[in-house]
Specification:
- This protein is α+β, with helices and mostly antiparallel strands.
- It has two domains: about 170 residues, no CATH class; about 270 residues, DD-peptidase/beta-lactamase superfamily (Beta-lactamase, 3-Layer(aba) Sandwich).
- The chain is built from 16 helices and 20 strands.
- Strands 14-13-20-19-18 form a five-stranded antiparallel β-sheet, sandwiched between helices. A three-stranded mixed β-sheet has the order 2-1-6, with helices on one face.
- A hairpin with a 5-residue loop joins strand 13 and strand 14.
- The N and C termini lie far apart (about 95 Å).
Length: about 475
């Protein structure tokens, strides 16, 4: 028992000898924080409370540089009532002033080894409402709304819209607080979100087309139909014009409604002459086919089909090159603007554009043509109709305004004072139909009408190209 007591006494003496220097040094140099405890990375174990408060308040009172894109704004912590809570941090540090902690520190010190310090994080007060108000004011000053696309009437082009930018307030608040609580970096980049410009719409295209048509010295009618969306542009689209050979688009559809089998050699020759050569004799033969041998009956059936399709302003009064009765329609009753349309073959830009749109939709398996004549017209026949229109190899008028290699088919017609062209173009965002009729009293030059239609076509193509990039 005595030996055990002596052993314990010896162990105690050794411990005192081992820890006594550290204890004496600790008592002599004891500061505001226990040894081995750091406040936000700083060692204050030999500093008094006043020094700790002064140092921390100085470190965190420096302005913070806030960057909104290329703009730099300084935020003083006092503006958002940012204040370091020194008392809370010191109180948390003193919780580590326990015997077990001190013994561990002194043991590592006696063994000449480094003990990882205990870190006390920053404790602070902040008025978040004041910070949010400050950020909101920055957003008001520097946020930029998106700019919509604009129509340039001088050169008939569309200037694409520009994206806007908007501050993400919650994410930016987090970054600003991180900068306020970082005594070394003192900078933050606000989080900005790009906002896309509103998409260009058909009204913008209509504005440009209207501006270009206003330069035409006569009466211009235009109808555009975007088949996938149904978007339409219409300018004088319900004015009566001479239909000329454009009416043969509808005539070909009626021929296929009549046929129960593929066209034979005779009908193929008649279709070829009608479409490729604009032959009126062949057109009358097709009307006779529709009327079971009577071209006059064919005219009646053909006009009835147009009414079934809702085309009430389009008609053939009699077989081509033959006199017929005067036909009154809503379009030709208007009187103004007057295009002095052929009294025997009339249409409007809208109705002939819709006719071609129906054929394209039918070729895709839908649309009004299939709905109006079920089991009389098929999808395959409508595709053949479009193939027949490829026989028109004229590269002027609407197709002249398209980029090289673009898939397009059209049917045009012309008389002395009036030129018309109806085309389907497979554009950047799907097929669209463009129907243009121009009337100039006295004489309409071919080069002049072709240049006008070509530019109208170019404007439409550029619009859909812009839409495809949005």
């Amino acid at each position: 028992m005595r030996k055990l007591f002596l052993a314990l006494l010896l162990l105690l003496a050794c411990g005192c000898a081992l820890f006594a220097p550290s204890y004496i040094r600790y008592q002599r140099t004891r500061g505001a924080t226990p040894p081995g405890v750091q406040l936000v990375g700083y060692d204050f174990s030999q500093a008094d409370t006043a020094t700790v408060a002064s140092t921390l308040n100085r470190l965190y009172s420096e302005p913070v540089a806030i960057h909104y894109a290329d703009q730099r704004i300084f935020l003083r912590p006092q503006m958002v009532k940012f204040q370091v809570d020194v008392e809370a941090m010191l109180a948390e540090a003193r919780q580590h002033e326990r015997l077990d902690h001190l013994l561990r520190i002194w043991t590592f010190e006696a063994l000449h080894r480094d003990q990882p310090p205990v870190e006390i994080p920053l404790r602070y007060h902040l008025d978040r409402d004041a910070l949010d108000n400050w950020l909101a004011d920055i957003a008001v000053r520097y946020d930029r709304p998106p700019t919509p696309a604009r129509a340039m009437r001088t050169n008939f082009t569309i200037i694409p819209g520009l994206p806007g930018r908007q501050m993400d307030l919650p994410a930016s608040r987090t970054r600003v607080i991180a900068a306020l609580t970082d005594p070394r970096t003192r900078t933050a980049n606000l989080v900005l979100r790009e906002t896309a410009p509103p998409p260009a719409n058909i009204a913008l295209l209509t504005e440009l087309l209207q501006a270009r048509i206003a330069q035409f010295p006569g009466v211009a009618g235009l109808f555009l139909h975007h088949i996938p969306t149904g978007d339409e542009a219409a300018i004088n689209a319900d004015v009566a014009f001479s239909a000329m050979s454009t009416m043969k688009i509808a005539l070909l559809a009626e021929v296929y409604r009549k046929l129960d089998a593929a066209p034979d050699a005779t009908i193929t020759a008649q279709i070829t002459e009608t479409i490729a050569l604009a032959g009126n004799r062949a057109a009358n033969e097709l009307l006779a086919l529709i009327g079971d041998g009577s071209a006059t009956e064919g005219v009646r059936i053909f006009n009835s089909s147009l009414r079934t399709l809702g085309l009430k302003n389009s008609f053939i009064a009699a077989p081509y090159d033959q006199p017929g009765p005067r036909v009154a329609t809503n379009a030709n009753r208007q009187g103004q603007p007057s295009t002095r349309p052929d009294p025997y073959v009339q249409t409007t830009p809208r109705e002939m554009g819709l006719m071609l749109s129906m054929i394209v939709a039918c070729g895709q398996g839908g649309g009004a043509l299939l709905a109006a004549f079920p089991n009389q017209v098929t999808q395959a026949e409508c595709q053949q109709l479009l193939d027949w229109m490829r026989l028109n190899d004229v590269t002027a008028l609407i197709v002249s305004g398209l980029p090289k290699g673009v898939r397009a088919i059209h049917k045009h017609g012309y008389v002395a004072e009036t030129h018309g062209d109806v085309a389907v173009i497979w554009g950047p965002v799907g097929p669209y139909v463009l129907s243009v009729f121009l009337h100039r009293p006295g004489w309409l030059e071919w080069d002049f009408s072709s240049a006008t239609m070509g530019e109208l076509s170019r404007i439409a193509w550029d619009y859909f190209a812009l839409v495809s990039r949005q």
